Amino acid sequence: MANEFIAPDGHPRCLWCGGAPEFLPYHDNEWGFPVDNDQRLFEKLCLESFQSGLSWRTILNKRENFRAAFHHFDIHQVARFNEDDVQRLLQDAGIIRHRGKIEAVINNAQRALEMIEEGSLAAFFWGFEPALDALQEPQSQTTSPESVALSTSLKKRGWKFVGPTTAFAFMQAMGLINDHASGCITRKKAAQARRLFTRPANKRHSSPGSPATSELAQNK
């Protein structure tokens, strides 16, 4: 029970989601459930990048502001942002006004479009899903060999603000791993969702000789 807390409904949850009222619905309905939508995956990685050096509560409370400011993280629209958009965003008190991170989102949208031409972001990201027997005790780590490999692969493709810790948090949230605490009531729900989830795949990203597979092997 050290990494769990009892929620108002009397059931145990991951300890971290007891830190703020807004964490519980996010934890129960989103965190750790598998996602295969390119736009949602892009949004989450962008928000994790903005979180670097900050708390997730800060980002979660500003998430709707981020969505409005970045056109709901439509990859095509964000990729067309220019210096005028950067200046607009630097004046937006509803988001994190960090030039480097704002410019990184725009850059990353452009890099994402390049990758989508090869297949899908979902197929690429899910190529880094770890083997089940490689998982350690839930919530016992902040990086993994797979998150290091994902970070390395993204950086090789020109992405920014995507370090191994950011990549690991992204993998936790998007269901590439089930990192809910062992006694958390949501762990079984996330596990069932992962069992029923059809992994996205395409030959370019997910075959044994694909970039995801080879880069993961190099980082083990």
From TrEMBL:
InterPro entries: Adenine_glyco, DNA-3mA_glycosylase, DNA_glycosylase
Transmembrane segments: none
Any Pfam family the entry gives: Adenine_glyco
Region (Disordered) location: 197-220
Highest taxon of the lineage: Bacteria
Composition-biased stretches (Polar residues): 207-220
SUPFAM superfamilies xrefs: DNA-glycosylase
PANTHER family, alphabetized: DNA-3-METHYLADENINE GLYCOSYLASE 1, DNA-3-METHYLADENINE GLYCOSYLASE I
Stated name of the protein: DNA-3-methyladenine glycosylase I
Native source organism of the sequence: Halomonas casei
Taxonomic placement: Bacteria, Pseudomonadati, Pseudomonadota, Gammaproteobacteria, Oceanospirillales
